[in-house]
Every structure is written in structure tokens, then in C-alpha cells.
Amino acid sequence: MINGQHQAARARNSAPKSAAIKRTRCGVSSAPKLDPRQPGAVDRKIGALLRERRQRLGMSQKCLAKLLGVTFQQVQKYENGTNRITLARAADAARHLGTDVSKLVPAARQVRS
Asked: How much is the pTM?
């Protein structure tokens, strides 16, 4: 390659690649895939509702954790939306907090993920 062509090729290769839209094999554009295991807006909403209910009752994270059989750090992660909470554990938490899990899920459905 001539020196100028080599520099132009290097500039093209080092240009930032856009991850916003990808082309699939069938030619349809799609947004980049998110890891479905990662917590999203719904998980954060459920966690916020759990925290709100727990605080309204004057219960500590440590107390709720003991009732659920997890650490207080895990409860903290649920409430912050850092970790996802299973439906079974959410139902168990709701029961210990004197509410019904169905009151948590409809509120979370309004959040767009």
C-alpha cells in the first residue's frame, strides 16, 4: 500500500462502530440485545414498592431478610433493583409485609422496560 492509503485504511478501521442498530440476516434492523437476566425497570419498581411497604411497617432490612432466609444485603439489592427477585420470593415477602403480591405486579406492569 502507498503510505496515504495505509493511513486512510487505518483511520477507517479505528473509527468507532455504532452499536445502536444492527442488521440481521433477514435484513430487519434491530436494537442491540439486552441481557434478559439483568434487572430492569420492572425489577426496580417492585423493589421500590417492597421498600416502601417495609418502611411503612417500620421493619428493618435485617428483619425482612431473616423472614425470607436471605441476608440483609440481598434485601438491599432487591430494593435497589440491583438483583432480580423471583416471583416466589416476592410473594413470600409480600406475605410477610401483610400485602398481596398482586398489588406489586400491576404497579410494575405500568413501567416500560
From this structure: 0.64
Which domain does 95 fall in, by range? 41-109
Tell me the pairing of strands 29-30 and 22-23: antiparallel
Query: What domain count does the chain have?
Result: 1
CA 98 to CA 94: how far, in whole Å?
6
Cell numbers representing residue 85 in the block: 427477585
**Closest Cα to residue 94, out of 82, 86, 103?**
103
Q: Are 47 and 34 in contact (CB under 8 A)?
A: no
- Domain CATH number, residue 105: 1.10.260.40
Please check whether residue 55 lies inside any domain of the structure.
yes
Cβ-based neighbours of 54, under 8 Å, separated by 6 or more: 61, 64, 79, 97
- pLDDT tens string 19-67: 455 555 655 556 666 777 788 888 888 999 999 999 999 999 999 999 9
